[in-house]
Structure formats: C-alpha cells, structure tokens
User: Fold Acetyl esterase/lipase from Lutibacter oricola.
Amino acid sequence: MMKYTLNIINKILILSFFIVVSYSCSSSDDSVIIDKTTAKELLNVSYGNETKQVFDVYLPANRDESTTKTFVLVHGGSWVSGDKNDLNDIVAKLKETYPNYAIVNVNYRLAGIGKSPFPMQIDDLESVFTKLKTKANEYQISSNFGFIGISAGAHLSMLYSYKYDTDKNVKMVCSIVGPTNFTDVNYTENPDYLEISQGIQLVTGVNYETNPTYYKNISPYHVVTSSAPPSILFYGGMDNLVPTTQGVEMQAKLDELGVTNQFKLYENEGHGWEGDALNDTYTKLENFINTHF
Assistant:
C-alpha cells in the first residue's frame, strides 16, 4: 500500500496528451486445462479489446470451483492513472496470509479529457466478473468475490458492489481512502478541496451545479442499500484528497442501513500510510476477512 500524492488536474492534463503504451500479453490459451493441484500465475489475461483491459490471476494449489474464493484488487490513481503493479505488495501479502484464496489484480481503462471514467470503468469491472465466471471451471474458482480497492479503485469497488452487482457475487468490500460522496460539502464548498472537485468535473465532463444528480448516482454513499456486502473502511485524518467526512459519513450510512461494517480513521495519516499504521490495517483487514469472507 503506497502513498498517493496525485495532483488530479495535472494528471488529467498530462494524460490527455499521451497514448497508453501497449502491454505484451501472456494470457493462457483458453483450450488449456489448468492443473488444479498446483498453484498457477496467469499474467495480463485479456478481458476486453483494449490494452488496459487485462488482469493478473493467482490461483492457489488444490483449489475447487465450489469453495475457492477470490480477492479482486483495484488500483488507485484518480481514475486517470495507476496500474495493477502498484498493488503487487498487497498481492504478496494476501498470498502469504491466504494461501487457499485466488487473487485477481485488475487493470482498467484510464480516463482523460473527453473520456469519462463513468460508466467506462464500471463496465470494465463487470467485464472482469463476466470473464471470471466464464472461466470458473478452468480456473477452479467459485463465484464468491471480495474487493480490496485503493483510492479511486476503492470508489469503483464500492460503487460496483453497492449498485451494479445484481448477482450479489461480491461478499466483501474494503475501501482504503476511497471517495464515497461527491456531493459532500467539502467537495462542493471547501476551498481546500476545490482543485479535487474541479478535476473530477473536468474528467467527467459534467458540471456539478447543473447536474448534481449525476454525482449522486456515482457516489457509493447515495446508492448503497441494506443488501450491501460487509464493508471495511480505512481513512486518513490528514488526507488532502479525500476528506475524513467521506469515511465518517459512509460508516454512518452503513450503520443506518444495518450493513455489517468496520471503520478506522488514522488521525495522523494522509492519503496512504506505512509502518505501524499499515501493519494495523493488515491486521484489521485480516480479522474482517476471517469473519466475513
């Protein structure tokens, strides 16, 4: 888990002038039957036609289609940057702690000026799940998935889980510094977050004042229902990108709806942390997974 110190507007402007470099793909042949008794890593498996529509999948030994659960990791980067490789440390930690779980580390199409993240990136997550369910017999994994998302990836994980997971395959979602409510007064009125608000409006192409409903519809806080999966939230008290109200009010909403949840605010941390705080996050997440996923 690394610190994200992104300047959203600069990122958006830079990314609008550069073309994403193509990846080499090393996905498995669909005709190959994978030995379920041994662990297997499949890198850059394609789930769409564009270069960013790939994921890495880590399959444990002795897996079973009826019982093997899968973590789905979604990287951050303000919807306009970032890469699945940013989460390789978390992949390693999960492999060590949960050797019987599969792990899928996702890339998704990046947004830019004239290329809104919504619904594009939600569509990508839907395509990921469609691919995984199609490959369930080959991979020998069940349809039980747990999200772990960072920053923008946490926002996407919550939004998908709370609004778009019609089959209820997501059994747990973890948000680490994920935005939850774009109608929060800190985004709409607080000058400390004005640059963030302007960046979000720039990349979506939608003005908040003329279309606040749009921002409600992409806010996990506004779309969550009582059927949401167990959710664990981690936030920093000194975050200059995501106000603490995003976590505090999200927890209150989950409590109001009776959704199982846990919330931790690290008062002296920003948009990501290391050391003792990171170890505490891993411990709390592990306990939550053991209980709820």
Summary: Confidence is low (pLDDT under 50) at residues 2-31. The chain has eleven helices and eight strands.
